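Sequence, please.
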């Protein structure tokens, strides 16, 4: 075979490999998008609570009233959009993101879908608990897996704790979600828990002197560092309350880990839109 013929064979071979790689990427993106659509559809089918709870501590009812929840009914789903910055590890550069989220009112369920740029390449991240499934996944160009933590009791606990922490954006759930267990620690601290057995988890809600929900904390949220998952102290702060859709919502928030006694903020964001229906 001549040199020219050998070059053509190699070129055709490389071209075929590139074409196969592109087909694989397209299939991976379609599969990922299909799973996201399936999760969203499951959330959309979440039933609406028939009545408010009558077994709640007065302090929980007072918080719901302050946030604008009335006896006249409540929503089924919260929808919001966000923008902000994320840090993948201490000392790393911030990554700008935009996100949209759907949160169930009467059940422990949500789907957070974010888009960000990583090393000049777009990355899509989903964080969710829907039904018995839970996970955190990130894919470059919507196809190449960069992170994937799914379907274990530990991951479910982690995602359920996020749901509990985000009750500040889901005030109707205070009165309507029967999967939440409440206890009053003191005048400025409420504890809310959910789940059974290995999936049991609890988050503390911190109020200011006026009664606004301004922070969350937990002692043992699962955190993954490489291949190792450990229970770490976790916290969040919310503020800049505004009345939107008849509810008082904090429009700015940050979330972080306490690592060896030092705060590491890994998420800071702003609520761009919010609605409940």
């Amino acid at each position: 075979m001549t040199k020219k013929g050998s070059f053509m064979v190699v070129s055709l071979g490389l071209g075929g490999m590139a074409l196969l790689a592109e087909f694989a990427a397209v299939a991976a993106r379609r599969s990922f998008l299909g799973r996201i659509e399936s999760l969203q559809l499951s959330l959309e089918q979440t039933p609406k609570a028939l009545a408010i709870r009558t077994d709640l501590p007065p302090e929980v009812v007072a918080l719901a009233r302050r946030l604008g929840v009335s006896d006249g009914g409540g929503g089924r789903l919260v929808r919001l959009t966000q923008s902000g910055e994320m840090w993948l590890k201490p000392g790393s550069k911030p990554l700008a993101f935009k996100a949209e989220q759907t949160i169930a009112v009467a059940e422990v369920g949500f789907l957070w879908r974010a888009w960000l740029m990583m090393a000049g390449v777009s990355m899509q991240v989903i964080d969710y608990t829907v039904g018995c499934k839970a996970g955190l996944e990130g894919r470059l160009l919507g196809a190449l897996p960069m992170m994937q933590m799914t379907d274990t009791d530990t991951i479910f606990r982690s995602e359920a704790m996020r749901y509990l922490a985000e009750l500040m954006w889901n005030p109707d759930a205070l009165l309507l979600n029967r999967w939440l267990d409440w206890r009053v620690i003191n005048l400025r601290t409420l504890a809310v828990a959910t789940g059974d057995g290995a999936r049991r988890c609890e988050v503390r809600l911190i109020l200011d002197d006026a009664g606004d929900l301004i922070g969350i904390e937990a002692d043992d949220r699962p955190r993954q560092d490489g291949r190792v998952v450990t229970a770490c102290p976790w916290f969040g702060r919310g503020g800049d309350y505004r009345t939107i859709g008849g509810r008082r919502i904090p429009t700015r928030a940050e979330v972080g880990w306490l690592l060896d006694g030092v705060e590491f903020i890994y998420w800071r964001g702003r609520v761009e839109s919010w609605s409940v229906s």
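The first helix runs from residue 3 to 44.
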